[in-house]
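Dataset card, provenance and construction

Sequences and ligand SMILES were collected as paired inputs. For each pair, a complete structure of the chain with the small molecule in place was predicted and serialized as structure tokens. The example below shows a pair involving fe (ii) ion. Curators did not alter the output after generation; any descriptive sentences attached to a record were derived from the structure itself.
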Amino acid sequence: MFARDVRYLYQSYGSYVTVGQSDPFRATDTQRNKYRIVSPEHQFRDLVMASLHDVERAVSNGIPPPKLDLPYPDTPEFITENLLKLLELTPNPRHKFVLKNLIKHLHQFINETSITTEEWMTAIQFLTRVGQKCTTTRQEFILFSDILGASALVDAINNPPVSGGTESSVLGPFFLEDAPEVQFGDSIASEGKGEYMFVEGRVLSTDGTPIPGATIDTWETDAFGYYDAQYKNFEKPDCRGRLHSGEDGRYGYRAVVPVAYPIPGDGPVGEMLVALGRHNMRPNHLHFAIEAPGYNKLKSLVVKLQDIKDEAEARKRGFPKGDSFKLLQFDIVLVTEEQSKAAFEKFAKEQAQKASVRF
Ligand SMILES: [Fe+2]
């Protein structure tokens, strides 16, 4: 029984015998260590040895093998071509288009850089660490996407400029869904979090019409350069809030002056910036994410502040002490979904024409 099951397992887990060792069960310690690095299936050996009879028979995903006459992939060209032929079988046309392009560029990148096995393993370990660093309040992958310029590029492509519309920006890694509701004039920051700032403006369409009822999410650093979720004892939101524009499109709230802050240095992305010799500070900014029915969702960053030194004005705006505050005036101009869609389709068409020449 044992021998038969092991034979079956050998057949099902062929990758065991393709990495330079015919029998991993008889491997020396050194050889086993090699397996542990090369083959993630090494864990299966322990599972087999521990409780073979508890293992359910492995089954395929039900998709029949491809009826393709593919050449043996013994050259880099055949490896790429074979995979592209397999991807021709992809049922969803968009999946097929995106994955074929991804494979073309990935294989081209590997070829052009002559990536070594060690470098490739370093990259895989780096991505593994990026994933392991993510939690419900920490998004290391968004940070990675940001520093590669990928977030900005995706945003720029998906939100092409529309005349008169507010410029779009990236969401960043610190957005959370649970912002508390605040009313006009309320503060999103608790007392002592930083220098007072009042934020006000209108939400408008590109023809200047006020947009009432727009949902505005806003979040920022405190005076120490941290977003709330970065604190170890983080329990409830601070320096973030959700409000709605009034009938005249107006919105206004109290906050604190955001400060320049570093990209978190205690993870793989921070280490990568050091390795690349790249500066890790971001200029001070306030985040916005605005939604209104019929309009394109907008993410934006703002930094332009005015100094106000007027005690009466400070009291009038709800600040409990002092005679000065910063004022940030920001009119948010939303583009309609139709305007955005037309601009995106124009851009996509131009790119497709360029791509047809390139590929
Ligand atoms: Fe930010």
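Derived descriptions for this record:
Residues 2-54 form one domain.
The longest helix spans residues 337-358.
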